[in-house]
Each structure stands twice: as structure tokens, then as C-alpha cells.
Amino acid sequence: MDSLPTVSDVVRQYSLGANKKLGQHFLLDMNITDKIARLATPLGDYHVAEIGPGPGGLTRSLLKAGAGAVTVIEMDDRFLPALKDISDVSADRMTIIKGDALRVDIATELGSDRPIKIAANLPYNVGTKMLINWLTADPLFWDQAVLMFQKEVALRIVASPGDPNYGRLAVLAQSICQCNFAFEVPAKAFSPPPKVDSAVVALQPLPMEKRFKDIKRLGELTQAAFGQRRKMLRKSLKPFAKKYSLDMDNWLSGAGANPTQRPEELPVKSFQDLATSSS
Ligand code: SAM
């Protein structure tokens, strides 16, 4: 890895101008990519799926931190030569997939030889969608995810009831994972700098018996509740209650909720109880 030119030089060498449509903001400071990779350690026994490696700064850090295997999934083929240069010095630990990570079946591509971790500086435009896909994957195919989002999304993942950031993403993520806001990364650390700051979140799946089972129903319920977050539950959940033939008052009180509450006041556990008792 030390024999490679710096990531900044690679960007220049291959004329890798950022394509805003693909959410491209590069991390050229290896201190930051090393910090992200450290959060994902231990890595030696794992296969890491890195989404959107771009010029490969985080890829290098993951390999340097001792990842047993790294598979990168990149949509923009302009990055393939730079990624191949890293692969050539990776002692056969790196695989490159050219494609849209939203369509790639990560579990199948990586196989079952090693447990899987996901690491990424995610493209802002599709980061939340990717996370929801990974949270709702059945079976959950990954053991840890260390992900950079725009800071506002990171805050939404870890938010508690009463917090203005609390919503559907918090309920879903916290029903499947222990979610930790790890650290912030200022916009100026990227090239080109995005309009907002970023933050890294570490997601650790809960033990199987604590993971909420019916994530699909929970998704539907939270969509109904937070889709109209200013409204009281008795109003926002009316179509949902009707669809599943639920008596609103009994159903809500069984989960410790009351009809005049708004969704942002309701703890994750109450949403889970409401989802469970709706089926
Ligand atoms: N990991 C690099 C870094 O930290 O410097 C680049 C991060 S940049 C924020 C996001 C990367 O994701 C870009 O390389 C972009 O081309 C890639 N990307 C965007 N959408 C993608 C998708 N659907 N599937 C795979 N890669 C994608």
C-alpha cells in the first residue's frame, strides 16, 4: 500500500473530477479514512463490503487495518483503473465489482466464507435507501456497518423520542441495531466539500432474540405515523388501523400509547408493540 501514490495524486493522475449526480465527495485525508477503518476493527477474519470506493482512500485504510478480504462496489467506471492499482498490491485480498450497489446482492457476491462487515462513505443521494435495504435484509447478512452519512441523517439514526430528528429511520435502525454516533467530519475534509457536514455511525446488529422480527410491518406503521408527524396518532394511524381491523383505543393503549400523542413522543418499544399487536 505504501508504494502507491497519494489519493490526491491518483485523482489528478486519472483526472477523476467529481460527478455530483453520483454524490461524489472524496476523502483524501488518510487520517480520517484510517479512523473509519479503526472503528470497523477487528477486520482480519472478516470480508468487508465497501460501497462507493471512488479513488480508494477508505479501501486502502481497510486493507491497511488488516481486512481479510475487501469487495468494493463502484458504479462509476472511471475509478476502476485506480482501484485496480490498489488491488494489485493487496495480496489478493481485494475484489472489484462494477455496478449499482442498490442492485448488487452483497450476501451472494461475498459468499459465506467469512462474516461480512459493511464500510462506506456513502453517496448522500442514496445512502438512506441503502441503509434501509440492509436493515430489512432477511436474513441480516452483515455483522457490523460503519457508515458515513450527511450529519443530519446520522442524527436521525441515533435520535431518541422527543428529539426533532426522531422518526422512522431511528425506529427501524434501533429495532435491528445498536446505533452509535461515532464522530463528525467537517465538510472541508472532502474534495469537493459538500454543503453540509458529515458524520460516521457504527451499527451493530442486536443479538437475534432482541432484534425486532416483523420489520416490514414496522416499516409500514412508521411510514403511516411519521408520514403525518404533526398529527395525533388517532388521525395519522386511522388508515393503518382500518386496514388491519384494529380498535384504535384498545390497540394504542395495549402498547402504552394514547390517541392524542404525536409520533415523535412514542418510544421505539411502543412502535414495536403496535406493529406486533397489529398482526
Ligand atoms: N469512498 C470514496 C471516498 O471516501 O473518497 C468516495 C465516496 S463518494 C461520497 C461516493 C461514491 O459512491 C462515489 O465514488 C460514487 O461514484 C459511488 N456511488 C454512487 N452511487 C453508487 C451506487 N448506487 N452504487 C455504487 N457506488 C455508487
| Element pattern in H and E | HEHEHEHEHEHEHHEEEHHHHH
Please estimate the helix content.
Answer: 25-40%
Number of helices: 13
Q: Over the alpha carbons, how many angstroms does the gyration radius reach?
A: 20 Å
Uncertain regions spanning at least 5 consecutive residues: none
| CATH architectural arrangement of the largest domain | 3-Layer(aba) Sandwich
Bound molecules: S-adenosylmethionine
- What name goes with the CATH superfamily of the largest domain? Vaccinia Virus protein VP39
The geometry reads as elongated
Q: What structural category characterises the helix and strand content?
A: alpha/beta
Mean pLDDT: 96
Strand order of the largest sheet: 4-3-2-5-6-9-7
Keywords:
elongated, Rossmann fold, 279 residues, 7-stranded mixed beta sheet, alpha/beta, single chain, two-stranded antiparallel ribbon, 2 domains, binds S-adenosylmethionine
Question: Can I get a quick summary?
Answer:
By secondary structure, this protein is an alpha/beta fold.
Topology of helices and strands:
Elements: H1 7-13, E1 26-27, H2 30-39, E2 47-51, H3 57-64, E3 69-74, H4 80-88, E4 94-98, H5 106-110, E5 116-121, H6 127-135, E6 144-150, H7 151-158, H8 168-176, E7 177-185, E8 190-191, E9 198-205, H9 215-227, H10 233-236, H11 238-243, H12 248-254, H13 268-277
Parallel strand pairs: 2-3, 2-5, 3-4, 5-6
Antiparallel strand pairs: 1-8, 6-9, 7-9
Helix pairs in contact: 2-3, 8-9, 8-13, 9-13
The chain binds S-adenosylmethionine (SAM).
